[in-house]
Design goal:
alpha+beta; 3-stranded mixed sheet
Length: 84
């Protein structure tokens, strides 16, 4: 639980609000409601999308022409990446 609290503090210090219009992307085939989340990650040009959502996690990586690839990881995997 301490790791999760540390993660929340890190997000609060480092998060950036992304504004603008979402692209009309259909890239999460298992759950279309997750498309705005995926689009926000792409528009924000983030290297990682951290989620517990199995529909997003099943994709592993978002790849859309004209955008930086976004790796999708769970919270624990992200914490391990931060320790590197």
């Amino acid at each position: 639980m301490a790791q999760l609290a540390a993660f929340h503090r890190w997000v609060e210090r480092n998060a950036e609000v992304v504004e603008g219009e979402y692209q009309d992307l259909d890239i999460v085939p298992r759950d279309a409601k997750d498309n705005p989340i995926a689009a926000t990650a792409l528009e924000g040009q983030v290297p990682y999308l951290v989620s517990r959502d199995q529909d997003l996690l099943s994709l592993k990586v978002l790849r859309v022409p004209g955008h930086r690839s976004v790796q999708i990881v769970g919270p624990q995997a992200f914490l391990r990446l931060l320790r590197r």
